[in-house]
Amino acid sequence: MAADEKAQAKGEQVEGKVKKVAGGAVGNESLKAKGEAKESQGDLRAAKEKAKDAVKPK
Questions:
Q1: pLDDT for 12-48, tens place per residue?
Q2: Cα–Cα distance between 23 and 2 in angstroms, integer?
Q3: Confidence class for position 2, pLDDT limits 50, 70, 90
Q4: What pTM value is reported for the model?
């Protein structure tokens, strides 16, 4: 399950970055804001997974 979550986090980060860059390139502030939000969502999901890995006994 953790691998799925990590992959989903990376996907959200990439999708967000693409939208953010595309919105900035064409001057679409709404698309840029949506991209920033999606990228942040991915960052938070990745941080959650890192915290779970740090707590998990080895």
A1: 999 999 999 999 999 999 999 999 999 999 999 999 9
A2: 31
A3: confident
A4: 0.84
Q: Which two tokens stand for residue 26?
A: 């064409």
Q: Give the span between the Cα atoms of 54 and 37, in whole angstroms.
A: 26
Query: Which structure tokens are listed for 9?
Result: 């986090």
Contact 2, 35 (CB under 8 A): no
3-state SS, one letter per residue, for the chain: CHHHHHHHHHHHHHHHHHHHHHHHHHCCHHHHHHHHHHHHHHHHHHHHHHHHHHHCCC
> What letter represents residue 30's amino acid?
S
